[in-house]
Amino acid sequence: MSSRERILDAAAAVMLERGIARATTKEIARTAGCSEPLLYRYFPDKQALFMDVLTERTAPLTGWDQLADQHTVAANLTSIVEALLAFYRQSFPMAASLFGDRQATTTSRTTAPPASRSGSSGPSPSPPTHRPQPTRSNRDLPGLQPPLSGPRG
C-alpha cells in the first residue's frame, strides 16, 4: 500500500472518530505511520485531504446515468436514495464537527476551494436566498412536496 493510500485510510479513520474540525494532520500522520511533511507532500492542506477522503473513501455517487435503460423509475430512484444514504452515513460524522466549530464554519463559508480542484478561479456562488417552488409535476406526486414553513407567496 502506498504512503498516500495509508494517509487516506488514516485520515478517514481519524476524521470519522474525531470529526474534521478536531482531527489534526499530526494525528493523521501518526496513525498512517508517516511524518507530517510526507502528508503535506501529497495533500496541500486538511481541506484537500478531506475532499480526497470524501471522493476516494466513501460510497461513490456515480453511474446513475446508466440506470435509465435497466430498471423501472421506482427501482432507479431507490438505488439513488440508497447510494445517497450510504454517502451521508459515511461523510456526515466527519463533517458534522465543522458545524460545532465556529471558526471552521466561518472559514468554510468564506474560503473558495483551490482553482485546481473546483475548476474555477472565483469564489463559489452563494446559495439561493429563496426556496424554489415545486414544479407542477412535483405537486402531483405524493411525498415530493416541500414542507410548509410559513406563508407562501
Keywords, please?
Tetracycline Repressor, domain 2, mainly alpha, elongated, 153 residues, single chain
Short description:
This protein has 153 residues and is mainly α. It has 8 helices and no strands.
How would you describe the overall organization of this protein?
The chain has 153 residues and is an all-alpha fold. The protein has a single domain, classed as Tetracycline Repressor, domain 2. Helices cover 58% and strands 0% of the residues. It contains 8 helices and no strands. The chain has helices spanning 3-18, 25-32, 36-42, 46-57, 73-100, 102-110, 115-118, 136-139. Helix 1 packs across helix 4 (46-57) and helix 1 (3-18) packs across helix 5. The radius of gyration is 19 Å and the shape is elongated. The protein starts with a helix and ends in a 14-residue tail after the last helix. Residues 108-150 have low confidence and may be disordered.
H and E order: HHHHHHHH
- CATH level-1 class: Mainly Alpha
- Domain count: the total is 1
- Major sheet: size, sense and barrel closure? none
What is the element layout, followed by pairings?
Blueprint: H1 3-18, H2 25-32, H3 36-42, H4 46-57, H5 73-100, H6 102-110, H7 115-118, H8 136-139
Helix pairs in contact: 1-2, 1-4, 1-5
